[in-house]
Amino acid sequence: MRQRQAKYLDDLASREVPSVEMSQAERDEKEHFRVALQRVCDNVCTSNSRIPQVSLECFGSFQSGFASAGSDMDLAIVVQDPSSADAVFSMFEDDLPRSLEKELLKVGFGARLLTRTRVPIIKICQEPGECLLDKLRIEREKWDFLPNEKKYPHLHKEDDETAEDDGVQAIDGAAKTMETGAEAAQLVATQATVEAVTTNGSGSTTQKQTTSITATATVDEDSNGKQVAQARREQQKSWTRERKAGPLDFPKDGIGIQCDINFFNPLGLHNTQLLRCYSRCDPRVRPMVLFVKSFAKRRKINSSYSGTLSSYGYVLMVLHYLVNVAQPPVLPNLQMPWRPHPNCAPPGYSRTEVDGWVVDFWRNENEIEAALHNGQMSPNTESVGSLLAGFFQYYSSMGNGAQFRWTQQVLSLRTPGGIMTKEAKGWVKAITEEGEGKKIQHRYLFCIEDPFELSHNVARTVTHNGIVAIRDEFRRAYRILMSVGIVGQPSQEGELLDQLIEPDEDEQVLEQHEEVPAQKKKRHGTRGKRHTDSDATVDAEPQQRKQSLPKSQPKQLDVADQEDFPTLSSVKTSSRRKKSTGSATKNSNFTEISGEKAAEYLEEFRRKKAEEHAESTAYGAAEAVLNGLD
After folding, report:
1. Measured at the alpha carbon of residue 295, what is the angle toward residues 411 and 465, in degrees to the nearest 5?
2. Cα 214 from Cα 162, distance rounded (Å)
3. How far is CA 548 from CA 300, 469, 541, in A?
4. For a pLDDT cut of 90, what percent of the chain falls above it?
5. Angle at 614 between CA 612 and CA 616, to 5 degrees
6. Where does the record place Basic residues bias (predicted)?
7. Other C-beta atoms lying within 10 Å of the C-beta of residue 476
8. pLDDT tens profile 273-297
């Protein structure tokens, strides 16, 4: 059985890996773009004596060797003089992040500064086009004209909180002034979140419980009931693995090279070097990583901003399997004392501390490659296909081999054996970290410990729907491989690397399917049975595709609500407010405000919601950057 599976995967990998790996020509083009960005950065630093000279250094997959064709380039700001670094990382108007964003837009590059992330990030594109460039410039101009309390909310936290409270209280009163049921229906679907916060000693981390509060409008049931019901239905749309892009989000292609600049991510450079050294330990590592990344992208479980896992997370999953699960091990643990011979650099030789975290691993690439050449690294002789078969079985938690326990275990690459428990790490409940006007949500449904920053869960962006999707895809892969092993061909679920088509996409394709001539109806990338050239198969295809699509969820989960995380075995603490009876006197928790003041509050509330939506879409992409991925 394993031989059939290995042959199937070897054949698949031999076709897939060359098609997704980055060419040298693409690498050279991206390096030229990095040099152009360095010149812009130099000009900004030279024109402002407060800003020290900095360099833009590559990290992430582009530097580690795991980059896919067309992937973004990740850059980190490195300060030449650390003693004068304040202006580099500050968010004030004349400091580097804001100044660099402004200069990039001025010279014609697309640029957007993200500030609600763990560290500041500028997303950049080489050729934005006039329309996108105008939108980005207008957005920057809006920020320029904001009052200081809006520009720097963390400096006016008390005022900001008071304004937010007033705004929430105003919603109920404002709803009563709406002239149409459509306007009121929009408010019925508006929700605010109230947090019960327990602060630790440092005052930075909170344990979060949420209570859903519905801002209910007083509307006439006969005239407006249908609109209210429609608004509620729209709030319950099924979750999709890929979110629709916002108005300021960069499209996937057509805008030249895309790049992300991190302003403070020193551990990212060391993480990249660790992964680069692992890629040098065995020639099977790189094709295996590229194959798994391609699998995750095709099956749409590779989007941290949509609630699934970053590419960096999948790389760590592969390395964990090769170090700790494959027998004999394919890779040594580079963070352990083992060396192939006494002439290698000893443990602790390159030890350093970065932001209080110890960084110590075997990082001498020449010694690693020499040991590989001399056959001193691993006695394991399995093919890439055989290793991939074991990889999918392990993470499917099915079959007779070793299994990863998703609800109980933490992947810990640095640890002997590679596994810790969630209880031992204290990673059993979602928490929110607050500071400098932003909140960072830490979830522990899926846990992958960062090799150096031990308090960081690389999979913290994975939501309940996300982990369900990831596990479902590994189980689907296992079923396909079992079918290959038993009968010699994939199951009715399709090929392993078939592109997943979500319901919304499927409807769009079906509409196009009806418009094009019959000879062009054939569709690629479905998850069902293979197409044939017969008309009967083509005509039956839409129904087959409909049956193969994942079922819609009856209700969209609130990813910030502990109630939505059953795997954490937490006590349900959320409660829902009873529906309004239409009487204003029964809702004593809201202060009614009418007239122009109410309209102003409502407009401000809508503006903030729109900003949060746009920011959240970019936020997950930024988290992907922080994890050193494509």
Report:
1. 65
2. 20
3. 15, 15, 11
4. 51
5. 65
6. 519-530
7. 20
8. 999 999 999 999 999 999 999 999 9
| C-alpha dist (Å) from residue 410 to 107, 305, 418, 427 | 46, 21, 8, 9
Cβ partners under 8 Å of residue 275, min gap 6 = 64, 65, 66, 315, 319, 628
Q: Three-state SS across 534-567?
A: CHHHHHHHHHHHHHHCCCCCCCCCCCCCHHHCHH
37: CB partners within 8 A, 6+ apart: 56, 75, 104, 109, 124, 259, 261
DSSP string covering 479-529? HHHHHHHHHSS--TT--TTPPP--HHHHHHHHHHHHHS-GGG----S-SSS
Residue by residue, DSSP assigns 221-233 as HHHHHHHHHHHHH
Backbone dihedral angles phi then psi of residue 232, each to the nearest 5 degrees: -65, -40
Kindly give the interhelix angle for 311-320 and 266-281, rounded to the nearest 10 degrees: 40
Positive or negative: CA dihedral 475, 481, 487, 491: positive
Scanning the structure block, which residue is given the tokens 């002789």? 381
Contact partners, residue 6, CB within 8 Å, separation at least 6: 382, 383, 385, 386, 389
Q: How far apart are the first and last CA of the chain?
A: 35
Q: 3-state class of 188 per DSSP?
A: helix
Segment among 35-49, 327-341, 372-386, 549-563 with least mean pLDDT:
549-563
The CA–CA distances, whole Å, from 198 to 193, 437, 471, 569, 575 equal 16, 18, 32, 19, 18
* Cα–Cα dist 298/308, whole Å: 13
Return the number of other C-beta atoms located less than 10 Å from residue 67's C-beta: 26
State how far the Cα of 195 lies from the Cα of 212, in Å rounded to an integer: 10
What is the Cα–Cα distance from 185 to 235, expressed in whole angstroms?
A: 11
Q: Give the pLDDT of residue 560.
A: 43
Q: Which of the pair, 543 or 138, is modelled with greater confidence?
A: 138
Tokens encoding 330: 């394919």
- Span 455-467, average pLDDT: 95
Domain segments of the chain: what residues?
503-549
- H/E stretch holding 124 reads strand 121-125
Is 354 within 8 Å of 266 (Cβ atoms)? yes
- Please report, as a single letter, which amino acid is at residue 190: T
The pLDDT assigned to 608 comes to: 67
Q: Provide the pLDDT for residue 318.
A: 99
Q: Are 393 and 368 in contact (CB under 8 A)?
A: no
Contact residues for 567 (Cβ-Cβ < 8 A; gap 6+): 406, 407, 445, 464, 467
User: 21 has which bridge partners?
Assistant: 68
Handedness of CA 126, 129, 130, 135 (dihedral sign): negative
Tokens of 335: 């963070």
SS (H, E, C) 401-447: CCCCCCCCEEEECCCCCCEEEHHHHCCCCCEEEEECCEEEEECCCCC
